[in-house]
Amino acid sequence: MAHSLAFFPFVGIVIGALIYVLNAISPLSDLPVAVRILLTIAIPLLITGGFHVDGFMDTEDALNSYGTMEKKLEILKDSHIGAFAVISLLKWYLIYGAGVTAILLNEKCDRRIVLLFALIFVVSRCICGLASIGFKKARNNGFLYEETKDKQTGTVAFLIIQLVAALSVMAYLRLIYAAALVLAFGLYTLYYRHLIYKEFGGATGDTAGFFVTTSEIIAAVILAIVMIFHSTL
Question: 23, 47, 159, 180: which sits with the fewest CB atoms below 10 Å from its CB?
Fold first, then answer.
């Protein structure tokens, strides 16, 4: 398990491949667009079993408790979910649904755009893996600490190679869109680091799930916005 983070992006590859097949390969791509939008949103949940969404909900509960750092860390360990988790999930997924809809209904959406969108799920997991290794941990126990406590030079190198490869393909597909996504991921990663250091004292497995979930939603929305803006030029 020590180097399992190196293969974290492979989950993103599976998710992205299914999204690409659904939206770019006949006969699935011939399904009504409303069906494809809903399935596109559902695929990450179906593949992962909602593993990262669970971390997202725990993190949202903790953040919205406005308690001490110790209290927030206790909430992260609590298996129950609160009202703020449900409200936050609904809010974020409505935004995600709007982003996915704007992408798939845009007249510029072709196979290249679908592939670029699909690569978001690889990039998010590459960055999450690197952040999980490089960022300070909130506590000296738990899943994330055990996963990253040993020397991770090979894992870091493999994650960087996968990240560079994914971003290179993005740039080849649509340079302007890729640049916007790189900027969005970069800025959001810096914000995520600031947030978890301030609120939790570092990263945990739950905050990693929070990062994956929110960064993918933000990236989808950014892609949708850039497509809309670019189509008006």
Answer: 47
Query: In sequence order, what DSSP letters do the residues of 60-128 get, joined into one string?
Result: HHHHTT---HHHHHHHHH-----HHHHHHHHHHHHHHHHHHHHHHHSTT--HHHHHHHHHHHHHHHHHH
Residue 119 in contact with residue 17, Cβ under 8 Å?
Answer: no
Confirm if 143 and 52 have CB atoms less than 8 A apart. no
132 vs 123: CA distance, rounded Å: 14
- Asked if 154 and 104 touch (Cβ cutoff 8 Å), the reply is no
| pTM attached to this predicted model | 0.92
37: Cα within 13 Å, side-chain hemisphere:
18
In which element (H, E) is residue 174 found?
none
Q: Any idea of the CA torsion for 107, 105, 177, 175, to the nearest 10 degrees?
A: -40
Residue tagged 């560079």 (tokens):
164
